[in-house]
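Supplementary notes for students who missed Thursday's class. We covered one full example, reproduced here. Read the sequence, then the structure, then the short commentary at the end.
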Amino acid sequence: MEQRLTIITLGVSDLKKSIEFYEHNFGWTRAGTSTDDIAFFSLNGIQLALFSKRELAKDARVDNDGKGFNGITLAYNTRSEIEVDELIKNLKRKA
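Structure (token representation):
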């Protein structure tokens, strides 16, 4: 398996303020794939995403009650469905 991360997503309480923080303090520019609901910043091969913490918890299918879920997700995207199948098979074998 290739060592890489695809997306780091931060769940934020105020998306607009969070976007302004990265744009104004770091001078970063949002990627064209950003929408009103999620902002992406391209970082040398990794994407940083800013998303509502409540919506991120819903997407991850966990409670947003402050217990256990810290509002951060990491994504590893494979290059093909075959790689997904191989990864799942290897994980099951090691479980």
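Commentary. The helical segments are 15-26, 53-60, 81-94. The radius of gyration is 15 Å. If anything here is unclear, bring it to office hours.
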